[in-house]
């Protein structure tokens, strides 16, 4: 109102390019809980928190987890060396490099959970890609991540930068056998780009019609009809 806007403001979530989803046929089998990371490998993305959190787990729990980190580890060379050093001694860590977008189905087929540990107010599209494949998300309780991930519904949230809290969430994935399945059940369908386009076209059509009606001679803009 302070800026002269008197009409209702509608917030519409992004649509996502899920053309690659046609190649997704379900999760590949595994006896481990596979935690995946997808994105830039830079300090602000918090990739180090994943490795530090796993280090805090008991040895038996670490043995039941596998970490699959997708991204260019050499983009920030010093940080890449730090991550490789943290991975020394951990039993199941793989730095997988980058991949083509059209190969996303195969990547997410190999995840049981996606982790998004960003340290800034991020809105990662990978959260919705994960949801499209029925993959729960463990994410920082911050910004767009907390908007998309509902704690204990479709994923788990942890406090920003809190390694102990992240380790606790990872520990739950190991100690609560039904947790991943429960979180999968809370995932709702992901909006596609085409659905977003359809929404926008419908919105513009309604606005155009309202403007046409309002421009009729004798129209009462207050909605009372002709004077």
Give an overview of the whole structure.
This protein has nine helices and six strands, in the order βααβαβαβαβαβααα. It is elongated. Helix 1 (47-55) packs parallel to helix 3 and helix 1 (47-55) packs across helix 7. The protein has a single domain, classed as Rossmann fold. The chain has 227 residues and is an alpha/beta fold. A six-stranded parallel sheet has the order 3-2-1-4-5-6, sandwiched between helices. Helices cover 38% and strands 13% of the residues. The model is unreliable at 223-227 (pLDDT under 50).
Shape: elongated
- Strand order, largest beta sheet: 3-2-1-4-5-6
Q: List how many beta strands DSSP finds.
A: 6
CATH arch. level architecture: 3-Layer(aba) Sandwich
CATH topology: Rossmann fold
Structural class: alpha/beta
Q: What is the name of the CATH superfamily?
A: Glycogen Phosphorylase B
The residue fraction in helices comes out at: 25-40%
State Rg: 22 Å
What's the tally of helices?
A: 9
For the biggest sheet, the summary is:
6 strands, parallel
User: Which stretches are low in confidence, meaning pLDDT under 50 for 5 or more residues running?
Assistant: 223-227
What is the C-level CATH assignment? Alpha Beta
The proportion of residues in beta strands is 5-15%
- Average residue pLDDT: 91
């Amino acid at each position: 109102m302070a800026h002269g806007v008197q009409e209702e403001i509608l917030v519409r979530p992004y649509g996502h390019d899920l053309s690659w989803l046609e190649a997704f046929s379900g999760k590949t089998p595994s006896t481990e809980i596979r935690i995946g990371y997808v994105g830039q490998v830079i300090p602000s993305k918090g990739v180090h928190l994943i490795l530090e959190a796993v280090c805090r787990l008991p040895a038996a729990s670490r043995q039941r987890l596998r970490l699959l980190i997708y991204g260019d580890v050499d983009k920030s060379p010093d940080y890449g060396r730090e991550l490789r050093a943290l991975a020394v001694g951990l039993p199941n860590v793989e730095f997988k490099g980058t991949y083509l977008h059209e190969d996303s189905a195969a990547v997410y087929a190999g995840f049981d959970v996606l982790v998004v540990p960003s340290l800034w107010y991020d809105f990662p599209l990978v959260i919705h890609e994960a949801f499209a494949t029925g993959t729960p998300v463990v994410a920082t309780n911050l910004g767009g991540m907390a908007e998309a991930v509902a704690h204990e519904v479709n994923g788990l949230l942890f406090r920003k930068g809190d390694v102990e809290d992240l380790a606790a969430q990872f520990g739950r994935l190991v100690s609560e056998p039904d947790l991943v399945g429960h979180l999968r059940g809370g995932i709702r369908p992901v909006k596609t780009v085409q659905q977003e386009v359809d929404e926008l076209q419908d919105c513009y059509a309604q606005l155009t019609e309202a403007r046409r009606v309002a421009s009729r001679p004798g129209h009462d803009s207050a909605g009372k009809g002709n004077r």
